[in-house]
Design brief:
With 277 residues, the protein is of the alpha/beta class. It contains 10 helices and 10 strands. Strands 3-2-1-4-5-10-9-6-7-8 form a 10-stranded mixed sheet, with helices on both faces.
């Protein structure tokens, strides 16, 4: 992993996520690319034929000045955490956040995106809203979503939810690579509902294939998938929860407002979204 894209609006949630981004950059030996986007107000130039360019320039200049003033604050945070050596680059772009984020991922060959979320409503919007939900389906690199109440701590346990599909193995290996860099243990969770079709032999095959890796496989029988995941995060002391997007409908139902409210308040941990191929 070489490059981490960090979209920021310089809010409390973004600043909290910046600490996670810094520490993660240290873990994987990556550079950070800070992305700040802004939208220029749309004016009818027919009514402002002479001042249109001046209005545009003044808004752009104001955003640039704000951006320029905020950067030293973030660098100060890096210095305080003795992470001043992390390479930090900057992108200031006008236009839609999602559009610019996608372009930045492609143009800079980004390996990872880390974003802050400010609460249950923002979190729900992130997954389900017309704008930011597309980050999940539209950006093809892993996305780490950091709730504002999730303070950074040493990563000791990474949770990984699976449905024991063959394609899930590739994502599990990615998570295991991250875990190795932090000496963390991976705990894999499968919630077996009354409609589940995963055979015990499949679970045994996974256990055998990953026998040399630092991973435990847990199979918990319950029809309450969301509550089981929350209990898993809480009682297994999970520091990061990694999930694969799977079917859009299932993923959306998982991140409804009640679930995200509990996830952000009761067990506020960063969620790492992996994309199935």
């Amino acid at each position: 992993m070489k490059k981490i894209l960090f979209p920021t609006d310089f809010s409390e949630a973004a600043t909290n996520a910046f600490v996670h981004a810094l520490e993660f950059a240290k873990i994987v030996n990556a550079e950070l690319i800070l992305l700040h986007t802004f939208e220029i107000p749309v004016y009818d130039s027919q009514f402002f034929p002479e001042n249109y360019a001046a209005i545009y320039s003044s808004v752009e200049l104001a955003k640039f000045e704000m951006f320029k003033n905020e950067i030293p604050k973030l660098r100060a945070i890096a210095e305080e955490r003795k992470l001043g050596h992390i390479v930090i680059k900057h992108r200031l772009m006008d236009g839609d956040l999602l559009y610019n984020l996608k372009n930045a991922v492609k143009e800079d060959n980004v390996d990872f995106v880390i974003m802050g979320t400010s609460g249950a409503s923002d979190w729900t919007k992130f997954f389900l809203g017309s704008n930011t939900s597309s980050v999940i389906s539209g950006v093809e690199v892993p996305v780490l979503c950091v709730p504002v109440d999730a303070k950074f701590k040493k990563i000791k346990i990474i949770g990984f939810t699976t449905r024991y599909r063959e394609k899930d193995k590739k994502e599990l290996r990615k998570v295991l690579e991250i875990a190795k860099k932090t000496n963390a243990k991976v705990k894999s969770l499968y919630v077996r509902t009354s409609n589940s079709d995963v055979a015990d032999t499949t679970v045994k095959e996974w256990e055998k294939e990953f026998a040399k890796e630092n991973v435990d496989f847990l199979v918990l029988p319950c029809d309450e998938v969301k509550e089981t995941i929350l209990d898993f995060v809480l009682y297994k002391e999970v520091d990061i929860l990694s999930m694969i997007t799977h079917k859009r409908s299932f993923f959306e139902s998982l991140f409804d407002s009640s679930f995200t409210k509990k996830l952000t308040k009761q067990v506020p941990v960063p969620v790492l979204i992996m994309h199935e191929d």
